[in-house]
Amino acid sequence: MVKIQKRALALGAASLSLLAGFAPVSISINNSQSQGLLSFQIGDASAVAQKPRAYTPPGGRLRPQRTEGSGARGCTNSIPVTVNLLTPQDHIARTTEARPTFLWNVSGATTAPMVFTLIERGVSQPLYSKTLKANKAGIVELQLPPESPELKIGKEYRWTVALVCNEKRASQNINARAWIERVATSSQLKQELASATNDRERALVYTQNGIWYDGLATLNQAKTSDSEKTEAINSFSALLREVGLEKISKRRH
């Protein structure tokens, strides 16, 4: 009996010695619809294995968006140009603004007129249209002006950016289009926005509450601030990467 106890004690000591050679293991499961991540961590259990996503897409709104348009060399009388709308590609993104801000990227300069058009679902007449110049590469920002009609809560709108290469042959034009939905500002969103101390925090509040357009526009404005510029650019690029716009995120903004 004594021998058995001694053997058991020896086995226990060996087991403790063996376990001491391993770092602690931490497993965490995130059940949120937007993330669905399983984090498996070997090492310090207090360390973060994976950063939470900055953007939480609204549930049940999956719908492919044609967010990229490109054309042949002859269309732009220069090098081929691509238009990328800065919005998620697989669902209708949201805004709380009556006159939101739209952002898109043009890969190169072109002499072709660039036309922005906004149309309410089920209505043939455009709600707003504007012709712009695409005389340089980079991000274009357009906020609906005060004289334009307000977006209605609960309504969906299609916005299109077109490089008009041939007014008589629409098939030769470069088109990219996506949808936007206006939603009401919840009391929770109001409280979180009131607690934010800078534009980057406000942008994160928007995007983590599923409000893509307002968050991205807020970050784009923060890029012009001397105090927030560098961090805002990094946050802006990271947000684009989350929705599959890696090639745009790598360009200088």
Chart the SSEs and their pairings:
Layout: H1 2-20, E1 25-29, E2 38-42, E3 68-70, H2 73-76, E4 82-85, E5 93-95, E6 101-106, E7 114-120, E8 128-132, E9 138-143, E10 156-163, E11 174-182, H3 187-195, H4 199-208, H5 212-222, H6 229-242, H7 246-249
Parallel strand pairs: 5-11
Antiparallel strand pairs: 1-2, 3-4, 4-6, 6-9, 7-8, 7-10, 10-11
Helix pairs in contact: 4-5, 5-6
Domain count? 2
Query: Strands across the major sheet, in which order?
Result: 5-11-10-7-8
* Main sheet record: 5 strands, mixed
Helix content: 25-40%
Cα separation of the termini: 77 Å
Q: Report the strand count.
A: 11
Descriptive notes:
With 253 residues, the chain is an alpha+beta fold. It folds into two domains: 2-42, no CATH class; 68-249, Sandwich (Immunoglobulin-like). It has helices spanning 2-20, 73-76, 187-195, 199-208, 212-222, 229-242, 246-249, and strands spanning 25-29, 38-42, 68-70, 82-85, 93-95, 101-106, 114-120, 128-132, 138-143, 156-163, 174-182. The strands form three sheets. A five-stranded mixed sheet has the order 5-11-10-7-8, covered by helices on one side. Strand 1 (25-29) and strand 2 (38-42) form a beta hairpin. Helix 4 runs antiparallel to helix 5 (212-222) and helix 5 runs antiparallel to helix 6 (229-242). The protein is globular. Residues 2-49 have low confidence and may be disordered.
Features:
alpha+beta, disordered N terminus, 7 helices, 2 domains, 5-stranded mixed beta sheet, 253 residues, Immunoglobulin-like
